Amino acid sequence: MTQFENVTISKKANVYFEGKVTSRTVVFPDGTKKTLGIMLPGEYEFSTSVKEEMEFVGGTLEYKLQGQDWQKIEESGIFYVPANETFLLKVYTVADYCCSYISE
Fold first, then answer.
1. 1 in a structural domain
2. Is residue 13 in a domain?
3. CA–centroid distance for 80 within its chain
4. Does 3 map to a domain?
5. Which SUPFAM superfamilies match (predicted)?
6. pLDDT tens digits, the chain, 104 residues: what are they?
7. Separation of alpha carbons 13 and 31, rounded Å
8. Are 55 and 97 in contact (CB under 8 A)?
9. Which of the residues 33, 77, 91, 99 has an alpha carbon 20 to 30 A from that of 51?
10. Could you tell me the CATH number of the domain that includes residue 62?
11. Which of 63, 94, 96 is nearest to 81 (CA)?
């Protein structure tokens, strides 16, 4: 999916790591949420409260899930993070992403 229709977008940005990671929340008619954002080069640690799908549509980075080895994404890729876990990112070039929150 390259675009979303019939959604509500929050104008206020979610800002993390002194502005190096930003996103906007997108709410769908059924109440599900996604965030669309940009990550500048750097190293980051995030925590989840629900399962997340991290989809990258631009950039070069590596990610590390708990108990796994580092994996690389170049330009596009998807990975899933279980609920209530942390994951690490090493972002090498500006990364364009969409995070989907999955309630099970």
1. no
2. yes
3. 10
4. no
5. RmlC-like cupins (SSF51182)
6. 678 889 999 999 999 999 999 999 999 999 999 999 999 999 999 999 999 999 999 999 999 999 999 999 999 999 999 999 999 999 999 999 999 999 86
7. 19
8. yes
9. 91
10. 2.60.120.10
11. 63
Q: CA-to-CA distance for 68 and 88, rounded, in angstroms?
A: 11
Domain containing residue 66: 8-102
Q: How many Å separate Cα 88 from the centre of its chain?
A: 12
The answer to whether the beta carbons of residues 83 and 46 sit under 8 Å apart is no
pTM (two decimals): 0.92
Q: What does each C-alpha distance from 37 to 24, 65, 67, 104 come to in angstroms?
A: 6, 20, 26, 24
Residue found under tokens 């599900």: 32
Token reading at 36: 């669309």
Give the chain's domain count.
1
Question: Considering the domain boundaries, does residue 30 fall inside one?
Answer: yes
For residue 15, give both structure tokens. 């800002």
